[in-house]
Amino acid sequence: MIINKRLISPALGVLLVSVSVLFFTEYKNAMASTRVMAQTTDLDARSLTLGKPFFVEHYSNSSVKPQAPNTTFNTTGFGSGILNGTVKVKTEANATITFRNSETMLLQGHAKYVTPNGDTASYIFLELGKINPANLTYSGGGVAIFDGKATGRLASLNNLVAVYRSQIDTSGNATVVYYHWN
Fold it and tell me: Given its phi and psi angles, is residue 84 left (phi above 0), alpha (psi -120 to 50 degrees) or beta?
């Protein structure tokens, strides 16, 4: 499938933000200070059923802390997990992080999965999350859109759209749980 990025970029941005707001309760708190949330109907994500996750990723993060509003920086993260309960995967994500206020951040970027035998899958993502300054934990969620070039044991990810939740605990242990968007 050939995708014209110029035509779908604005629509994709609106879709990604909308899905994030709809599916993650944390966003009600994260967006409370913005006009967008003030005009949005109260949503309760607990009524949604996402089913069994297809991928659970783990990584370490030792730098979760509030930043000044409008602070933007780039970062690269590495993790690992098990896809569909059987396939070992290493992950690499490159993201631009922009703080909307000192605790709420927008992450956007691209990531790649690689199996031990070299199979690959790539996706773009958009995430909105919030740092709890009292204990420096993080909670967020977003959307991942895979391209159509996944290979081998990762071929099932071709053109997949996924929603995910991410958390970082007080020790810096991060978990990202991915669900199929049907």
Answer: left
